[in-house]
Amino acid sequence: MSANMVALAYLVASVFFILALKGLSSPESARRGNLFGIVGMAIAVATTLTLTQNWLLILACIAIGGIIGAIVAQRVQMTAMPELVAFMHSLVGLAAVFIAIAAVNNPVSFGLPEVLPAGSKLELFLGTFIGAMTWSGSVIAFLKLSGRMSGTPIVFGGQHALNLILALVMIGFGLWFFFSDTTNWTAFIAMTAIAFVLGFLIIIPIGGADMPVVISMLNSYSGWAAAGIGFSLGNPMLIIAGSLVGSSGAILSYIMCKAMNRPFLSVILGGFGSDGGTAAADSGVQKTYRSGSADDAAFLMGNADSVIIVPGYGLAVARAQHAVKELAEKLHAKGVNVRFAIHPVAGRMPGHMNVLLAEAEIPYEQVQEMEEINSDFSNTDVVLVLGANDVVNPAANVPGSPIYGMPILDAHKARTVMVVKRSMAVGYAGLDNDLFYMDKTMMIFGDAKKVVENMVKAL
Fold it and tell me: Using one digit for the tens of pLDDT, what is the confidence trace for 176-205?
């Protein structure tokens, strides 16, 4: 292919990526968005194959990766989706590092001069350290989300100062690499190694409640790493795709922080939820709560005019979304107005609950975001909370609380609240929930799927 044809093909692929991003902005158009993304990537890969003599090797690698990806996608549970996303981000960062190492080692094969120009060195420096930090940070996020590592923030004295010193040293080695007349492998390797360490240190002090923000932030990092490498390789498609991912991830991180009333810098510096998990047990005050059965809940909902269902991570763990759909259909048949309230950070990643409900083919018009539905809770007869905790915790309205100021779903304003949980254990933020001890609240203990199925039978 001629240079003009390659540029045109990459432009077409980039347009498909833009359409994919637009499609993913709504559940109704998400499938079409995914299709656009697949078409765009197919065009990009096909175009790249025309520029190399090693297309058989590349196709073999694509086949191996595709088979592994297909097997993982088939086996992964919905509850494991957040850590899978974090793991995928790590691979993007690592790929950027490997490409940068290859470009530094043999720049001619990438269409660069044998002696790297200053601009290429800067681009490789940026792509490498962002990619390295993305990989190591994503590994920590994966370990925390999968339960292989405690979600409690890991903090120690002088942590921020250490991070600052390492960042400055890393930049120093980067400048050494930049100003060297020849390829300075010592500076490049030192810079890369420090970036890997810095990625670990930045993520370990971040608590479990901030993990949705971390995922979107790492998503942004992976995009910027790809864009940086795209500049080095002179690949416009990679620059555009990476910039799309980087900017959309940054915007999503901002939205998540706003939804949690958390300054973005505060999230990065970490420590949220580190002193939680002791409200009920360590205060020495014995709180009382009211418990009931699935039959009690079915009776209350069956005689209500309006019901709002608040899904949370417990719903994902129990894979109860299909049972919940059946429950909603039974209530609709009785003339009950049923809606679903979604908090932006419910679950372990942005959109986690939307994905679950969409999988169960719950009508989109029944699913409403926090801003749409919050004013309706005070006029609602029954709220059914399924495995959610922090996103309905009234402690967010109490000055001095670690989550003070965090926007929540106002479930506590409804006439009756029913909460399905396995136990009275605290949520991911490590905080006790005052909603569970209100007179209007009835706790129903058990696996969410089994409890909901019993509600359906009772109805």
Answer: 999 988 889 999 999 999 999 999 998 888
Highest-pLDDT range among 35-44, 226-235, 338-347: 35-44
Q: Examine the residue annotation and report whether 390 is marked as an active-site residue of this protein.
A: yes
Per DSSP bridges, beta strands 337-342 and 306-311 are parallel
Report d(CA 359, CA 325) in Å as an integer.
10
More confident residue, 78 or 98: 98
Return the structure tokens found at 446: 């058990």
Q: In what order do the strands lie in the sheet with 441-445?
A: 367-369, 337-342, 306-311, 382-386, 416-421, 441-445
Distances (CA, A) of 226 to 123, 223, 255: 11, 5, 23
Q: Tell me how far apart the alpha carbons of residues 48 and 119 are, in angstroms, rounded to a whole number.
A: 23
Q: Report the 10 Å Cβ neighbour count for 267.
A: 23
What are the tokens at 21? 């991003």
Tokens of 141: 């996020």
Q: Read off the pLDDT of residues 13-37 as tens digits, 9 standing for 90 and up.
A: 999 999 998 888 777 788 899 999 9
Confirm if 24 and 30 have CB atoms less than 8 A apart. yes
The stretch 449-458 carries a mean pLDDT of 95
Do 89 and 249 form a contact (C-beta atoms < 8 A)? no
CA-to-CA distance for 86 and 278, rounded, in angstroms? 29
Kind and range of the H or E element at 383? strand 382-386
Cβ 328 vs Cβ 402: under 8 Å: no
User: Per-residue pLDDT for 158 more than 90?
Assistant: no
Q: Is 15 exposed, middle or buried (0-12, 13-18, 19+ CB in 10 A)?
A: middle
Residue 112 DSSP class: -
Taking 70 as the threshold, does the pLDDT of residue 262 lie above it? Answer: no
Whether the CB-CB separation of 377 and 308 falls below 8 Å is answered with yes
**Strand pairing partners for 63?**
none
Catalytic residue among 210, 390, 432, 434: 390
* Per-residue model confidence as pLDDT tens digits over 112-129: 788 888 888 888 888 899
Helix and strand counts by DSSP (H, E) for the chain: 16, 6
